[in-house]
Amino acid sequence: MASTDTAPGQLHVTDSRLQISGDWTLEHYAVLRQQVRSHHSASSAGDEAVDLSGLAGLDTAGARLLVELLGAERMANVSQWAADLPQARQALLETVARVLRKSLEPTRPRRAPLADWLVDIGERVTALWHQQRMLLGFIGLTLTTLLACLLRPWRWRVTALVAHIHQTGLNAVPIVALLTFLVGAVVAFLGATVLRDFGATIFTVNLVAFAFLREFGVLLAAILLAGRTASAFTAQIGAMKANEEIDAIRAIGLDPMELLVLPRLLAMMVILPILTFIGMLCGILGGALVCIFMLDISATQFLAILQRDIPLNHFLVGLGKAPIFAFLIGVIGCLEGFKVSGSAQSVGEHTTSSVVQSIFMVILLDAVAALFFMEMGW
User: Residue 57: phi, psi to the nearest 5?
Assistant: First the structure.
């Protein structure tokens, strides 16, 4: 803009009017900076009339100083009060003012730690409320689609149902059987350790039977399916969402709820009661082996106590919770898959979320059911 032998710009105040003249360029930055500081220390330029007609040279460094001198808000509207200034310089001043406006604003004071903590709790509660509303809406949509399909047998996806039963159920039998067997042995060991002090080790049989028929059989199977199957549902549907396959399904006139959700949901509701029954048997078997080899309780005596002291309603209570848990796990897994935004990171985040939500809901519902059955005397 200006040559190296030009004089630096000047600030003059005459009759409450600030006159800006000369070259406001990078080569004179140090001198101009000192003038701006001196003017700020002497008075405020916020209410003064400004005359830019004497401005000879201008670059971004000079524009930065003028914005600091006159204020970002004022310079952002320079075209309104300095119409005689060339348009190129007006554009430069307005651009620099817009960029610096946020940096020149005073920073907000930091909230106290307690306020930050309360704000964080409020945000989490709000997010949980929206999430539960979405879950209830998805449950309603699932039930509506299920009732519509039940009246139309020709639309049942039997092949997909059988395939998902095999994937989610039969392949999970070994791990469910092994886990419940080991937990049954541990429960028997712990029960025997406590009851031995009272000379009542025989009641270890009742402890193992009650625990697995009412709680552990269905709870362990549901938690395993929540970690194993709900995550698989989310990953499968989420990958389809990321690859826009679900949009393609809708484009050809098919319903993703009917095609993707119902077979998985029905498979879960069929297989979890079966896995629960297997878990009950294996847990009781693990406790029985401990009783036989460690507590000198014969197999005949163990079976006789089961037949005499354990009513059938404990088995029905445990088995009755299985379809409800299966429904919740399947719905949460599928819903999280539909919530995937389209990236691999989103698939991972919602897969983790589906596992956490499923396990939490299963344990919460089991606790509520235990209180209800206790009050009802079941």
Answer: -130, 150
